[in-house]
Amino acid sequence: MGTTYPTKPNLDLLNERKAFDETKAGVKGLVDAGINNIPSFFRHQPDKYQKSNNTNHAVPVIDLVDIIDNKQDPSAHQGTVDRIKEACETWGFFQVVNHGIPLSVLEELKDGVKSFYEMDAEVKKGLYTRDQGKSFIYNSNFDIYSSPALNWRDTFMCYLAPDTPNPQDFPIVCRDILLEYGKHMMNLGTLLFELLSEALGLNPNHLKEMNCAEGLIALCHYYPPCPQPELTVGTTKHSDNDFLTVLLQDHIGGLQVLYQDKWIDIKPVPGALIVNVGDLLQLITNDRFKSVEHRVLANRVGPRISVACFFSTGVRSSSKLYGPIKELLSEDNPPKYREITVAEYVAYFNAKGLDGTSALTHYRI
């Protein structure tokens, strides 16, 4: 028997969701049809956390210029590592600038993702699928049949590593830029895992040798304008089911991080990428680095485009077990989690859906 979750929708609601799913047109299809009232299954319960009015609270912005340019300045390098350490221990989030990925690549990626969603609706329907075995998966709400309420967004997901994708699996409008961005992202991810290893007091190659940077999955989101944004959300409160996420967001904003029980806006910084600790990194660091909950608000303006790159092998099978890193443990700091495989964690996370609770608690000792 699988685990049951009390918040799952009843049969009538499931039928409504099934009808929406079978249109294969996503949330964009609703907007294109000119709806003024959002369907009931997109309506969320009010969130208990307030938005922070403290303008002093902002996610740290970390400049990687000295690291990227390889200036060999030990004090500058250590300063960057210290800032990353503090960000991962307190916020679980930071933004990076001068990260080495050209601005033109970031702009071309946002344009490519937007072009996919604005393709002819019939062509796009042919790509709509819930088959987890595919390299390119386009649909609306991965947890459509399990979450308490749906999110106001459509998504396509593609695997970029460790296996080199077959270009034919990707739509031509965004094929080349996705493959190019994947190469840039693997380079940046390798660098970030080196800095994170140092921030933990470990050898720079430690996390890389644990294969934390082995898999790369791109989640390309399209948040259409919403006629009733106060009734729904773009993405429910959640933490990420990976080791590390590197997010490109456009100028519209709406991403918020939960910090000291208040929602803090992560304001778009031109050319910056947002980095956040995932659940698996919190698990292997034994809670030293925090995988923090975040959400995306719905908005009357749009579409909002974002691309989240997940460092994870996802549901693709691997027998490698991950538990708290031995070098970080002591008598005073025993392991807080049992060992699991990445695929097991992701499968549990996906089955649970974005229900506002953390999947990590399931694996606590």
UniProtKB/TrEMBL annotation:
<keyword id="KW-0479">Metal-binding</keyword>
<comment type="similarity">
    <text>Belongs to the iron/ascorbate-dependent oxidoreductase family.</text>
</comment>
<dbReference type="GO" id="GO:0051213">
    <property type="term" value="F:dioxygenase activity"/>
</dbReference>
<dbReference type="Pfam" id="PF14226">
    <property type="entry name" value="DIOX_N"/>
</dbReference>
<keyword id="KW-0560">Oxidoreductase</keyword>
<dbReference type="GO" id="GO:0046872">
    <property type="term" value="F:metal ion binding"/>
</dbReference>
<keyword id="KW-0408">Iron</keyword>
<protein>
    <recommendedName>
        <fullName>Fe2OG dioxygenase domain-containing protein</fullName>
    </recommendedName>
</protein>
<feature type="domain" description="Fe2OG dioxygenase">
    <location>
        <begin position="212"/>
        <end position="314"/>
    </location>
</feature>
<dbReference type="InterPro" id="IPR005123">
    <property type="entry name" value="Oxoglu/Fe-dep_dioxygenase_dom"/>
</dbReference>
<dbReference type="InterPro" id="IPR026992">
    <property type="entry name" value="DIOX_N"/>
</dbReference>
<dbReference type="Pfam" id="PF03171">
    <property type="entry name" value="2OG-FeII_Oxy"/>
</dbReference>
<dbReference type="InterPro" id="IPR044861">
    <property type="entry name" value="IPNS-like_FE2OG_OXY"/>
</dbReference>
<dbReference type="InterPro" id="IPR027443">
    <property type="entry name" value="IPNS-like_sf"/>
</dbReference>
